[in-house]
Amino acid sequence: MKKVAIIVFTVLFLVGLTIYMDRATRLPLKPGVTMEVSTPVSKPAPEIKLKDLDGKDVALADLKGKVVFVNFWATWCGPCQEEIPSLIDMQNKYAGKGFTVVGIAMDDEGKSVVAPFVAKEKYQVNGQELLINYPILIGNDEAADKFGGIMGYPTSFLISRSGKQIMKFQGSPDPAVVAKAVESAD
After folding, report:
1. Which residues contact 8 (CB under 8 A, 6 or more apart)?
2. What is the gyration radius of the CA atoms in the chain, in angstroms?
3. What is the mean pLDDT of residues 34-62?
4. Are 50 and 169 in contact, with CB atoms under 8 Å apart?
């Protein structure tokens, strides 16, 4: 009986300590601000081919020569919804400079959910209500695995003109990093 009490006390103590340490080390966020983590990467972009909303095959390799912002997202993902206006804005600003956003929708239901969503959802961008203005592909676990796996949505990858992954974003992208990549010769 005494051993059981010691084990229970130890377990409760460790649980309490874990909760305390989690709260003590958590960074406070202002309301409306999402946590963004960006990690430099330096490896070739994976070879993937996915269908767009028209059923056409799109290979990532076909976009070599452009700076590509690959965005894994889902229609049900709140943080994904919050970042879409900035992606629309980036597409508007940089499309003429050899840049494109490519959205990879990871909804389990696929095109049947994604296509109507993309066709009707409008976002406030610089005082205008706009639809998503960049290509949307229907994703799958195999595509996500080729990028090293996706821990949550949104997760994005910035790919240089030469076809190398240069940055991974967990959350909203840093606009300065994207602008620098667009202005770069590589």
Report:
1. none
2. 20
3. 82
4. no
Contacts of 136 (CB under 8 A, 6+ apart): 52, 53, 103, 104, 105, 114, 118
Tokens standing for 147?
């990028």
Residue given tokens 């460790």 in the structure block: 14
Burial 59-87 (b: 16+ CB within 10 A, else e): ebeebeebbbbbbbbbbebeebeebbbbb
Listed residue (185, 156, 153) closest to 168, CA to CA = 156
pLDDT one-digit tens code per residue, 137-159: 999 999 999 999 888 999 999 99
Structure tokens, 118: 């993309």
**Residue indicated by tokens 């994904």:** 80
Measured distance CA(141)–CA(183) in Å, rounded: 32
Q: What is the pTM of this model?
A: 0.77
Q: What is the pLDDT of residues 56-98, one digit of tens each?
A: 999 999 999 999 999 999 999 999 999 999 999 999 999 999 9
Domain 34-183 matching CATH 3.40.30.10: the answer reads yes
